[in-house]
């Protein structure tokens, strides 16, 4: 990422300057001048970054400018916080003026001088070669010198373009460049595909190195081996270290080619570098296909020797496919931020554990010439928790604290405790991780940014994401888009996707499925959210420790916010005393809590556009949820979806005419459902979906449920005390999906189930006490899918031969044998034998 860091840092500085100008009148004149300078040198920065990526201009030559830009960001941010002090105002104004002058000098003088110096070196090399190139090269050089003499305001862009042209001409020498004499020469390069040296300290890599070595030295193994991880976790370090291994060097010897690919690779240049590395005449290619064909011929010329091609930082699976050849002993080792399923499961590199992280951090704060100036184990442990096992984060923070006294360490940790982001000080870290997000499609990226609504180190239920995304992104189908996007994020190593029931999600059931997000990437989401004005952000994500509200909120100085998504996380000591919040545009509220008692904030009652409420308790005991009735107020009439997890509901006692879905997970619902004054049909008359999952005190379904004739989906899962369904269930004539999964005391299905004429899916998997299906089951003429895994004692009635639309029965091996006699009567039927993967949890394990 060092190659692309300059452009990203420059863009970040310009963004910060623009933002501060828009929110503050202090230093406006100085900042506008700085912005004008930055805008004027934008073409120069873009061209320079292009040459950096192509390795035409070494990164070291732009390091000074990059450092000044980073310092500039810190200065501009501090300016936005300066109080009304005449002395400080003058002091910071002088610093801004000097920053402007320094950037101008570097870009218009230092870099220009360096370019001219490089150009003279090129001409000297050309003269030493004795090649008759003078006509074209000198013509270009004269053009540059004339421009330098004229020294216009925006000369740099043209100068770089001409210089690049000359450099490309010299780099591609190796073909016949003297058209008259036909002279063929080759430039000598110093191993352009040599393996770079890994860092001296690489803790935590022993196990993955051993695993990778085993795979590489196999005589018969996968030709392509992919090592993937989020940015900053250390995949490049791993493969550099692997190439140093004696077994690897013994096997592949001089035929190890290391190529850094990056986000926008040029296949022709990659192939040319391999030719150069092997000291062969470098061809010129008109197409990528021609380059690949020549590379295959080149590698075949090596004979039976083993070859290892390392493609580092690959962003596209299709690129790797181009380098696959039918050659013996030829292996391709790939590092990527994405998983490439076509090449197998690959190797996923994990963040460092605490022991390895401490070793790397201690090394990073230790100067080369001795012991660290200061080191404290307790402070270091706190820093490790913030860095989340990321080698890049540990290294960046370590460098910042190297040689610093105790006060700086303590101040840094205190700032993080108060919510300051690690990314403000670690620009290199910010650029590295930000590039992973920027590579996402816009819609996928928007969905990913929503994940910051959920807490650190917690499972995020897919069903909760579906509820959120259905309304925020106006999806038509419940789970398909969500699962598609989650797979894309998983393939990019941005989340860990866990499908708990391997045979469950193919029919739209995701109750046990979840994702885990990478903590450092969540911190980046929070950082992005906080970098915007509170009133203007799309997502307002707030973490409250104790009762310490953000200053802008507690002082009640904010204007109405325009966020569509509001997430508030509180800890065990929160008192549920809320300040007022004006948020008229909010459509989704996510409340993450840990207390035994919790009161919904009154301001939710004023959210006229509110569509989704998700309340999740991560404490040990179910939280008593109060003030629930505010969701039934006339001002919240657009509410469509409610998800409550691990809470106790004293009473619903409200009416929500437009509510379409309610999900109750690990909740205490018995008291609310037994309330003689409560009729669920009156409370939620237009309900379409009702889910009750892991509610251990549920002994019967709520009164009036069968009067909700609009209901289309009813899911009762892991409710082990439920022993019977109401006889009047046949009144639910619109219901299409009925899931009764792992309800172990449920002994039978009522005969009235046969009246569900629109039922398409019936799932009784894990209902161990059901001994037979209703004799009238054949009346379910719309039934297409029947799941009965783990129901080997359930007898089939003769009427099943009337299930004309039944396409799939998913069951265990014993149950499948019962279906054999009926197959001739059901020509469309496919019986799928699945392993008994039903989770009979008593209750679901909590993850805190």
From TrEMBL:
<protein>
    <recommendedName>
        <fullName>RPW8 domain-containing protein</fullName>
    </recommendedName>
</protein>
<feature type="domain" description="RPW8">
    <location>
        <begin position="1"/>
        <end position="145"/>
    </location>
</feature>
<dbReference type="GO" id="GO:0043531">
    <property type="term" value="F:ADP binding"/>
</dbReference>
<dbReference type="InterPro" id="IPR036388">
    <property type="entry name" value="WH-like_DNA-bd_sf"/>
</dbReference>
<dbReference type="Pfam" id="PF00931">
    <property type="entry name" value="NB-ARC"/>
</dbReference>
<comment type="similarity">
    <text>Belongs to the disease resistance NB-LRR family.</text>
</comment>
<dbReference type="InterPro" id="IPR032675">
    <property type="entry name" value="LRR_dom_sf"/>
</dbReference>
<dbReference type="GO" id="GO:0006952">
    <property type="term" value="P:defense response"/>
</dbReference>
<dbReference type="InterPro" id="IPR008808">
    <property type="entry name" value="Powdery_mildew-R_dom"/>
</dbReference>
<dbReference type="InterPro" id="IPR002182">
    <property type="entry name" value="NB-ARC"/>
</dbReference>
<dbReference type="Pfam" id="PF05659">
    <property type="entry name" value="RPW8"/>
</dbReference>
<keyword id="KW-0611">Plant defense</keyword>
<dbReference type="InterPro" id="IPR027417">
    <property type="entry name" value="P-loop_NTPase"/>
</dbReference>
<keyword id="KW-0677">Repeat</keyword>
<dbReference type="InterPro" id="IPR042197">
    <property type="entry name" value="Apaf_helical"/>
</dbReference>
